[in-house]
Amino acid sequence: MSVDEFSLIDEYFAHRQHSRRDVELGIGDDGAILTPAAQHQLVVATDTLVEGVHFDRTTPPRALGHKVVAVNLSDLAAMGAEPCWLSLALTLPQIDHDWLTDFSSGFHEVSRYYGCTLVGGDTTKGPLTITVTAHGQLPNGRAITRHGAKAGDWIYLSGNVGDAGLGLAATQGRVQLPAAHLQRVVEKLHYPHPRVALGQSLRGIASAAIDISDGLLADLGHLLQRSQLAARIDLNELPLSLALTETVDTDTALRYGLTSGDDYELCFTVPEERRGMLDTALAHTAVKPICIGQVIGGRPGSMQLSLDGQAWQMPEQRGFNHFGDDHAVSE
């Protein structure tokens, strides 16, 4: 059966979503018409997933639909923004109705959960490539950026790191895991949960923030470089799951936690005088951020790592690099 671009959009995307009240005109025209809230600023983030780079043919299409939305919402969360509108650019080698059904299901499930509306995009023929642009909003002047950290600020992580990297290694046959651990880490790899509510709670508390997409060392390094500072990290405080600590040795578990991408936890800094505000803001939530170190003066982007009070060697590879000489397919 022949399907044109407009039929594809109508069948899988236009009629399978809710619409926000601030969408005056969505899918079906040359552009969307949106009405941001008064006294709010827009935050825009874009991410692309490319077959053979970010995923392979074994990745479930429902997981791809979920993930391409979630990774963008994680960027918005890091800036304290409320997710609002999405646009999707989808390049397909051919029309596969089963694939599109599962992909669009994952896409719409996570979009509805976080209150987002798909308002436009594009479909083309070519190598499988998925790009989403997410638009969010926040009150004027309340954005959390990467460049606000100060010496003396405390460094927090919103949850465990390294699980997605372990999940990727397991799906590629590089490590063997017990069934219970395998299910958990593969779920973390394929269906990340962006810390949207936490990001909004950090407005006025966090001095800087970033989401962990390419690995803790790489992403914290970006924050430190933007803030022109260094950091001291206590690896005894690094939040690692039982899936990691019961499967591999300590050094290997730490390297997963420090260099694996795709966890989409938030790493953020909090001044000493706002630590009580942080505890109060999150007292009635399930999120319990862990303090892993402190911002210090020093060469911008550099980090001092310690374990049991002793210096620990920094891994040569800090995280995923699209243009590195050696990298495996990364989710």
From TrEMBL:
Residues at which Mg(2+) 5 binds: 214
Residues reported in the UniProt entry to bind Mg(2+) 4: 30, 75
GO function terms (MF aspect): ATP binding; magnesium ion binding; thiamine-phosphate kinase activity
Residues reported in the UniProt entry to bind Mg(2+) 2: 47, 75
InterPro entries: PurM-like_C_dom, PurM-like_C_sf, PurM-like_N, PurM-like_N_sf, ThiL-like
PurM-like C-terminal domain span: 150-301
A GO biological-process term: thiamine biosynthetic process
Binding site for substrate: 54, 262, 320
Pathway: Cofactor biosynthesis; thiamine diphosphate biosynthesis; thiamine diphosphate from thiamine phosphate: step 1/1
Record-linked Pfam families: AIRS (PF00586), AIRS_C (PF02769)
Annotated PurM-like N-terminal domain residues: 28-137
Catalysed reaction equations from the record: thiamine phosphate + ATP = thiamine diphosphate + ADP
Residues annotated for ATP binding in this entry: 121-122, 146, 213
Positions that bind Mg(2+) 3: 30, 75, 211
Residues at which Mg(2+) 1 binds: 46-47, 122
Keywords, ordered alphabetically: ATP-binding, Kinase, Magnesium, Metal-binding, Nucleotide-binding, Thiamine biosynthesis, Transferase
Additional record remark: Reaction mechanism of ThiL seems to utilize a direct, inline transfer of the gamma-phosphate of ATP to TMP rather than a phosphorylated enzyme intermediate.
UniProt cross-references to NCBIfam families, sorted A to Z: thiL
Protein name: Thiamine-monophosphate kinase
